[in-house]
Write a structure and sequence with these properties.
By secondary structure, the chain is of the alpha/beta class. It is 42% helix and 15% strand.
Length: 289
C-alpha cells in the first residue's frame, strides 16, 4: 500500500520499521503519562498527515495522541488514502476501539478545512506545507478553544557542508542517500551542498558518477533506487523549475532518463546556486544544489 506514493521497496521497508518504532515509543509514553497525577487528555485530536510518509507519520501522530489519552480522527493526504485506511484497519484489528480511532479520507481543502474549523476538535497534529499550516492555524483561531494546540511540522531546507578534512567517498554516499532517497520527496532531504573550493572538482566528479549509477524506475522493482514523483501536478511544477534553472546556466549535471519510463519521473539533477537564500521555498524533488 505504501507504494501508492511511488516509494521504492527499500523506502517502504524503512517506513514500516519507523511506524513500528513509533508504536513502541508511544506505548512506553502511555505508561509514563499514566503515572503523572496532573495529566489529563484533551479530547478529540485531528491528525492530518502527508503523502510522503503515508504510514510512519500517520501512525506516529495517531499513537502519540492515543498515548496521551485522546481519541483521534485520522485524515491522510488524499494521495495516500489507501495506506491510511489499511493502517487504521490494522489498529482496529489489534484492539483499538473503532470509536477511538476513526478514518476520514478526503481532500485537504475540503475535509481538512472542515476539521480545522470544527469547534469540537481539541487539537490538531499536522505535517505538510507551511502555507497549509498557516491556514489551519487561522481557522482554529476562529473556531476552536483558545487552548487547543496545533502541532505543525512543515518543510525544510537542509544543508551539508563538506570541507577539505572530509572523506569524499563518505560525503558522496551521504549526499546520495539524503538528496535522492524517496526521490527527494521528504522535508529532511538534502537541498543545499556547500563545498570547500579545494574539494569541489573531485567531489563533484564522484557525485556525478554516483548519480549515474542510480537506477531510476518502477518502485515495485527491488533494484530501483529512485522512483517517480507523487503526481502529474508535482512533476510539471518540478520540470518547470529544472527548465528555469537550466535556462539560467545553473545546471551542473542531470541524469538522462530512459525513454521507456512510464510515470511521473523527474531526472536527478545538480544545480549551482550562490547560497540557501536563493531558494524561495522547499523544492521536494531529487535535486542537489
Amino acid at each position: 500500500m505504501i507504494q501508492e506514493t511511488g516509494k521504492t521497496i527499500a523506502d517502504s521497508i524503512s517506513e514500516v520499521r519507523e511506524a513500528v518504532d513509533f508504536c513502541r515509543f508511544y506505548a512506553n509514553e502511555a505508561i509514563r503519562l499514566e503515572c503523572l497525577p496532573d495529566h489529563c487528555a484533551r479530547g478529540v485530536i485531528a491528525c492530518i498527515s502527508p503523502w510522503n510518509f503515508p504510514l510512519a507519520i500517520f501512525t506516529g501522530q495517531i499513537t502519540a495522541s492515543l498515548a496521551a489519552g485522546n481519541s483521534v480522527i485520522g485524515k491522510p493526504a488524499e494521495q495516500s488514502s489507501l495506506t491510511g485506511a489499511r493502517a487504521v484497519e490494522l489498529m482496529h484489528q489489534v484492539g483499538i476501539p473503532k470509536d477511538v480511532v476513526q478514518f476520514l479520507p478526503g481532500y485537504g481543502e475540503t475535509v481538512g478545512a472542515m476539521l480545522s474549523a470544527d469547534e469540537r476538535i481539541s487539537g490538531i497534529c499536522f505535517t505538510g506545507s507551511t502555507d497549509a499550516a498557516i491556514a489551519i492555524y487561522r481557522s482554529m483561531a476562529k473556531s476552536c478553544d483558545i487552548e487547543a494546540p496545533l502541532i505543525a511540522e512543515t518543510g525544510g531546507l537542509n544543508a551539508m557542508i563538506v570541507d577539505s578534512t572530509a572523506l569524499p567517498e563518505q560525503a558522496v554516499k551521504d549526499i546520495i542517500a539524503s538528496a535522492f532517497q524517496s526521490a527527494g520527496q521528504r522535508c529532511s532531504a538534502l537541498r543545499i551542498l556547500y563545498v570547500q573550493n579545494e574539494m569541489e572538482s573531485r567531489l563533484l566528479k564522484m557525485l556525478f558518477g554516483a548519480i549515474e549509477q542510480l537506477r531510476v524506475g518502477d518502485p515495485w522493482d527491488i533494484s530501483t533506487d529512485v522512483g517517480p514523483i507523487i503526481d502529474e501536478h508535482a512533476q510539471s511544477d518540478l520540470l518547470d523549475y529544472c527548465n528555469r534553472m537550466e535556462s539560467e546556466n545553473r545546471l551542473l549535471y542531470q541524469r538522462e532518463l530512459s525513454a521507456h519510463l512510464d510515470g511521473y519521473f523527474v531526472p536527478p539533477s545538480v544545480f549551482r546556486v550562490s547560497g540557501i537564500e536563493e531558494l524561495e521555498r522547499e523544492i521536494s524533488d531529487p535535486f542537489c544544489m
